[in-house]
Amino acid sequence: MEIAVKTEFLKKVVSCASKATSNKAIQPILSNILLSCDNGSLTVSATDLDLAIECKLPAEVSKPGRITLPAKKLDEIVSKIAGDDINLKIDKNQLTKIVSNKSKFQINGTLADEFPEIFKKSESDNVYSIDQNKLLEAISLTSFATSKFENTSILSGINFEISGDKFEIGATDGSRLAVYNGNLAESKKRKDQKSKQSVVIPWRALTELERLISNFREGNEVVSFYFLPGQVIFQNNDFSLSTRLLEGTFPSYDKLIPKDQPNKVELVRNDFLSALERVAILANERTNVIKLSFTKNSMQLSANSPDYGNATDEIEVKYNGNDMDIAFNYRYMSEVLRNLKANKITLELDNALTPIILKPDEKVDYSYTYLVMPVQLR
To answer: For the chain, which domains are there?
Structure first.
């Protein structure tokens, strides 16, 4: 095997693929990255058997072949190389020579025959597509609401539902809920236009998908995906990502969202976020609680720390309901305010013991609902 590639491209694909490697000693080959080249391209693949990533890049192939190399060392090498081009040459003993300008490395490889097959061709009659920018937006507005305590819990995943020409992504950790609804792109291969499917995707997989889409935007407009038993595969022209699905039934969160909250607050997202971050400086570090106090066209934020003191701030809002107080974990609110792009938002409230509902208050081509459970004031 002998190839030449652009350093910039190799850095990007090795960095992305290495996120799927495993450091477990049960199968040492899973800590390696598979390099395979043929027909003017290099394919870089990695897997830990739960998550698999494959990236492609153009290459000058003098001699086709396959080899696996230690992911960590390969990533460190290519990230430090300063030259514009990298040459890789593998001898019959799997010794890989990496050369760029005056930098030369020799790294021991392993036969590719031991590396597991990670991608299967679609056996499904339904291949769906989503505009890549919409999928990025949906992930960024929901993934932070997953539970980070147990990786195997159903709440550590994201509910991904397809119904007709629409998709829904929902996430909850029991204290908050984020739900995004959008439209699928037109797909060439769709046997059943009214098909409905619901799966739970691990949070880690969607985080890596978000990274891949961000790194390979150029030359791509949509991300295609299809379902196989126990897994889902996402791909575009430059990458493929396969992940095992979480087993179990995701909570029926639609029942948790109040249908009609009598008190509505219209406000500017940046004003709310800025005030929240200021007051949070003196929030209780154990509870992260901040209180909102509503009066006519005004919202006051307050926090109290038994160790450091207290803080208050006030912003103008559009509100004509009854005076009321409600408290919540400020981190749950700041995360959505940082990720949401809409500048005008609406808060829907009932009383101090019912959820706060946040929605965009602008014309958007998607539907988004964010729910935060309140904290009881003492």
So the answer is: 2-114 (3.10.150.10), 128-253 (3.10.150.10), 257-372 (3.10.150.10)
**What DSSP string runs through 350-365?**
--TTS-EEEEE-S--S
Which residue in 226, 262, 282 sits closest to 351, CA to CA?
A: 262
pLDDT in the model for residue 196: 83
Dihedral sign, Cα of residue 299, residue 305, residue 310, residue 311: negative
**166 close to 182: Cβ distance less than 8 angstroms:** yes
pTM of the prediction? 0.92
Judge residue 165's burial from the number of C-beta atoms within 10 Å of its C-beta, 0-12 exposed, 13-18 middle, 19 or more buried: middle
Cα-only R_g, the chain: 25
207-225 pLDDT, tens digit per residue, is 999 999 999 999 899 999 9
Beta strands 41-47 and 289-295 are: unpaired
